[in-house]
Design goal:
Length: 291
């Protein structure tokens, strides 16, 4: 099965790596040469960590690398694809635009999945028209995709049963478990729940109740979170988090309204690991530092 991933950022490169590690031929597409280069670096670094942990051999890494191509040629990326997964910026017009291009180039039996964490699948599919909207389904991976076991599938209003079944098969081929939303609602399941938790962590920080380190430590050790909510925000990008929360607040009400701290950090350019500073500091390789 050939898998195409649109977008070579943190999530896109992770989805591409996951698919290649599970035996698929994968092409990751991005218009930015820097994004493609950085995506390759992230994948190579991740594969080395798997090897260091004894989970991949040198031959395994060679085989995964051979199955994975990164390109800025959309036609090359989408030809012969069985599944096209979009993982671009969380903006409706951007997602519609890339799908509108891809649907003209991909095979007619290909399905399209959006990795959005909170945008309406129906709204994204509306840009494809009635003929192609049934081929679109929400396929939401979690960060980092190579470690997180869940895939959230969301039906758009026009998503067909065949598309949903194909998406289930795809997730199963990646050794992932699925939950299915039969109703297309903002934030789905996980983003709504995690959004409220992260907002409360931000309020605790703003009130001076505890440090970012202790808030995250409490969630990891007391609530069994694999990563603290604040460090997860840094990992994904605080600008992405702010955009998602603004969208949820517009749809679901004030309980999701971003705090002043989050808004001010993004305005100041403190967006997390990708630029070196958020709730924590990071070195040039994205590793936590004490500076």
């Amino acid at each position: 099965m050939k898998i195409t991933v649109l977008g070579a950022g943190t999530m896109g490169s992770g989805i591409a790596q996951l698919a290649a590690m599970n035996g698929h031929n994968v092409v990751a597409f991005d218009t930015s040469p820097d994004a493609l280069q950085n995506g390759r670096v992230r994948i190579d670094d991740s594969l080395r960590r798997f090897a260091k942990a004894g989970k991949l051999s040198a031959d395994d890494i060679e085989n995964v690398t051979a199955r994975l191509t990164l390109t800025d040629d959309l036609a090359k990326a989408t030809c012969d694809a069985s599944v096209v997964v979009e993982s671009v910026i969380e903006k409706l017009d951007v997602k519609r635009a890339i799908f509108a291009e891809a649907v003209e180039l991909a095979p007619v039996d290909c399905i399209f999945g959006s990795n959005t964490s909170q945008l309406s699948i129906t709204a994204i599919g509306a840009g494809l028209g009635h003929a192609n909207a049934p081929r679109l389904v929400g396929i939401h991976f979690f960060n980092p995709p190579v470690m997180m076991r869940l895939v959230e599938l969301t039906r758009g209003y026009l998503t067909s049963e065949a598309t949903l079944d194909h998406a289930r098969e795809f997730a199963a081929s990646l050794d992932r478990e699925v939950v299915v939303l039969n109703k297309d609602v903002p934030g789905f399941i996980t983003t709504r729940i995690s959004g409220l938790v992260r907002m409360e962590c931000l309020r605790i920080l703003e009130e001076g109740v505890a440090s970012a380190e202790d808030i995250d430590r409490a969630c990891r050790l007391g609530l069994n979170y694999p990563m603290g909510p604040l460090e997860l925000g840094d990992f994904n990008g605080l600008d992405t988090y702010l955009s998602a929360m603004d969208s949820l607040a517009d749809s679901l009400g004030e309980r999701f309204r971003p705090t002043p701290t989050l808004r001010n950090m993004v305005m100041a350019g403190l967006t997390g690991r990708k630029n070196g500073k958020g709730f924590y500091n990071y070195d040039e390789k994205g590793r936590r530092s004490s500076e």
